[in-house]
Design a protein that fits this description.
- The structure is a single chain.
- The chain has helices spanning 14-22, 24-28, 42-45, 53-63, 68-73, 86-92, 203-208, 240-251, and strands at 100-105, 122-135, 138-139, 143-153, 180-191, 214-219, 225-231, 267-276, 279-293, 296-307, 320-336, 344-357, 365-378.
- Strands 1, 2, 3, 4, 5, 6, 7, 8, 9, 10, 11, 12 and 13 form a 13-stranded antiparallel beta sheet that branches.
- It is globular and about 60 Å long.
- By secondary structure, it is α+β, with helices and mostly antiparallel strands.
Length: 379
């Protein structure tokens, strides 16, 4: 079952963390010549259609009986290269806007009211986030993070962040009255019991240094995310990729919910701007109610991401242009009626890109990663 092996004699301290976090492909995979059809007019990029076809088809199917004219119009296909451009992204969701929810159907009876009526300041649930990932040819350690949540009123200007910690920093317009900050404190970090390979002897001590890291979401009073940021303990660049991956996983679980009760068969789309691999992306999530068990709803979440500007912000990458980009994920959630976050969740995310270095425009450099996570929260 082992997919990788680490040797404590080869790497030590933060060095092995840094190498595993970046991955060989991010630092210089074998060159790959781009196909002949690589050139695309820059001017046409801003007119690309942006709605994912799978999401559009599902929305149209639900609207067919109630809004046939809208369904007949259909939706355009997504951009083939996965890159939108700033103008096209702004037409979808203006910079600084909170996540937008579009209800497709409210489902059958019985129904539950999901999400809190109004987010309030106070101590939230605690739990465990287990995270495992692979970057290029490198497998990273599987880590158990102990989480503690706390929600507080957002201070004026909290949604505007001028630091690398919030790549998708919105404008001050996002600081709507009633906004709150939910802080996920990583109160401990340790290697999980099951690992894809043998850890170096010093791994436990290095992973423990993640204690004190945090991830924050600024949301509206009903849970629509306006911005996010993360902080690695001690501002460590070596540990930052682990916290960044945790933030990406939690972003898939920080969902707004419809204002009306929903039952089995209900579905809605959530559209947001979020960071992915250090760059801003337009994100579409199709959420479906697949079952009800008492006051708990079982949900599936399918995610598609599109890069807004054709460049990634990964450490070790030279100046470049992204020629192809694909990022998607799937998750299953158990959400109790009235709760802000799921009591349990499982998710998988995949990211692939082909970048062309400015200094070697005839060579393509593949960059890829996979992320798996499980979350359990208790009141």
């Amino acid at each position: 079952m082992s997919q990788g092996r680490w040797s404590s004699g080869q790497w030590s301290g933060g060095q092995w963390l840094r190498v595993l976090a970046l991955g060989a492909c991010a630092l210089g995979c074998r060159g790959e010549a781009p196909p002949a059809a690589e050139k695309q007019p820059e001017a046409a990029a801003e007119n690309k259609p942006v709605v994912d076809q799978k999401i559009a088809s599902a929305m149209a199917a639900a609207q067919r009986e109630t809004a046939p004219s809208a369904a007949e119009r259909g939706q355009p296909a997504p951009p083939e290269d996965g890159v939108l451009g700033a103008e096209a992204a702004a037409r979808e969701l203006a910079p600084g806007s909170a996540a937008q929810l579009i209800l497709g159907a409210d489902g059958s009876s019985p129904k539950l009211s999901l999400g809190p009526a109004h987010l309030a300041a106070g101590t939230g649930p605690s739990g465990v986030l287990q995270l495992s990932s692979r970057t290029g040819g490198s497998v990273m350690p599987t880590i158990d993070f102990e989480l503690k949540l706390k929600t507080s009123a957002a201070p004026a200007g909290a949604a505007t962040v001028a630091s690398h910690e919030a790549v998708a920093a919105p404008s001050s317009a996002a600081s709507a009255e009633g906004s709150v900050v939910t802080r996920f404190a990583l109160v401990s970090a340790r290697p999980a019991a099951q690992q894809p390979g043998r850890l170096p002897d010093e791994a436990r001590a290095e992973i423990a240094k993640l204690k004190g890291s945090s991830i924050e979401f600024v949301t509206g009073p009903h849970g629509a995310v306006q911005s996010q940021r993360y902080q690695a303990a001690g501002n460590s660049r070596d540990l930052e990729p682990f916290v960044q991956s945790s933030a990406q996983a939690l972003a898939s679980l920080a969902l707004p919910y419809p204002a009306v009760p929903v039952g089995v068969g209900a579905f809605w789309m959530v559209k947001s701007r979020e960071p992915v691999q250090g760059a801003e992306a337009m994100v579409y999530r199709m959420v479906k109610v697949t079952g009800l068990k008492g006051d708990v709803a079982e949900l599936t979440v399918n995610t598609r991401r599109y890069l807004i500007t054709p460049a990634l912000q990964l450490q070790g990458l030279p100046p470049h242009r992204v020629r192809q980009f694909q990022s998607e994920g799937d998750a299953t959630l158990s959400v109790r009626a009235g709760a802000t976050y799921p009591s349990s969740a499982q998710l998988k995310d995949r990211f692939m890109a082909l970048v062309v270095p400015e200094e070697s425009p005839t060579q393509g450099m593949p960059v890829q990663s996979e992320l798996s996570a499980t979350l359990t929260l208790a009141p």
